[in-house]
Structure formats: structure tokens, C-alpha cells
């Protein structure tokens, strides 16, 4: 069963739509281009999801995150602060856009177009079409890993821990072509052991970077159970569907 990484209410009034990295560590300034997606409803600010700056004005996230903001008819903001306390002066306003095939084909890709270009942060790189497929034929899959980054819940059980803070962790590749992934999703481990970690409620929209690079190959999408154990699934960026959508906002593959 799909369990979307959204819907978990916290206060910052901040509401994390999706859990953060499990078994990970605070990110600090390691990934400054990963930010927090925020909705403003009335006078309150709610943390909704994570995401990645992929151009000076485009913030890549998940479709179920942008749709949530649109459904709320909320004001949209992004911040690249890594940990509380959060300064509203550093919130950047923007407009959310959801992939048109989200409802019909589960194309879990969305963006926020920022009103002003971000300065002082280098955007993440976007891979060309079929990047992961080419990788699998070139070097095999056994040792491939991904760096996940996101904000939100660090633990569900045995102890709930939920701090709206940017965390990072590493997971191993499980599959690129199972019934769950179908060629458009990336399936990765979500259990501890061998220094590995996972994603959970509060990471939605955050990036799966290829190994220790700044190449964002997938966007965190869903987990298979409420404990955030077993495996997790992210929507691939290196597909024609994703790349055509990003091209509408002036974002193109870096290589």
C-alpha cells in the first residue's frame, strides 16, 4: 500500500507534510540547496514538505506537496535555513505548480517558481534522460547508494521524534524496475544497518542525490508502511515526463 509522505501536523507553527530522514544525522550546511516548503494560512506558517533548488528560481518538490498547498489556497514560501529557530525574513515567496498527470498517472513531480532568484546557493544538477538506466548497465547495481535529504520526523517507533530540521542519510538501491517502480520510480532501503537510513513522513519532495554528488535523480514520494521500514520509493527525475515538465520552467539537464 502506498503511504504518501504527507499529512503529519507539527507546530511552528509548522506542519511537516512528510517525515524526515530516519537513522540519519543533522545535515548542517552540507546541502544548502535543499529547503523547506511552507504554506501560510492566515497568520500561521506550516511546514509542508522538502525540496531542492534546481535553478535560481525553481524549487523541485513532489506533486502531492504542491497540490496540498493549492488545495489550501495558501501563500507559498520556501526557506533554506537548516534548523530552528526559523526567521520569517528568510522565507522566499513563490507559486506552486503540480504536474498535470499527477492525479491520472501518479506523476509525483511539482515545482515552486520563486518570485526572486536565490543568491549565494548553487542549484543542484538535473540528470539527462535515462541516467539511472545507463548507470545500471555500466556498473551494475550492487554497490549503488543514494543520499537522502529532508526535514521532519526522525523516528516513528519506538520513540516518536519530530524536529523540523534538515537531516541527511544514505540508503542502498533495491530496484529500478519492479512492479512498484515501473521504470519511473527509485526503490531504496529504509532500514538501519551498515550505516544506512531511510525516508519517512516529512521528507516528501526532498531529493535522492546520486551517491555523494549534487545530482538529484529522484524526489521522495511514498513509503510502504506507517513505521517507515522496509523500502521507500522516490519519483525519478531522469524521465522524459519529468524533464519535459521542468523544461517549461527553464530547467534542463546539466549533462
Helix/strand layout:
Layout: E1 3-4, E2 25-26, E3 34-41, E4 44-55, E5 58-61, H1 63-72, E6 75-79, E7 92-98, H2 102-105, E8 110-114, H3 131-139, E9 145-155, E10 161-175, E11 185-189, E12 207-210, E13 216-223, E14 231-236, H4 240-247
Antiparallel strand pairs: 1-13, 2-10, 3-4, 3-6, 4-5, 5-8, 6-7, 7-8, 9-10, 9-12, 10-11, 11-14, 12-13, 13-14
What does this structure look like?
The protein has 255 residues and is mostly beta strands. The chain contains 4 helices and 14 strands. The chain has helices at 63-72, 102-105, 131-139, 240-247; strands at residues 3-4, 25-26, 34-41, 44-55, 58-61, 75-79, 92-98, 110-114, 145-155, 161-175, 185-189, 207-210, 216-223, 231-236. The strands form 2 sheets. It has a 6-stranded antiparallel beta barrel with strand order 9-10-11-14-13-12. A 6-stranded antiparallel barrel has the order 3-4-5-8-7-6. A hairpin with a 2-residue loop joins strand 4 and strand 5 (58-61). 52% of the residues are buried. The model is unreliable at 1-20 and 154-160 (pLDDT under 50).
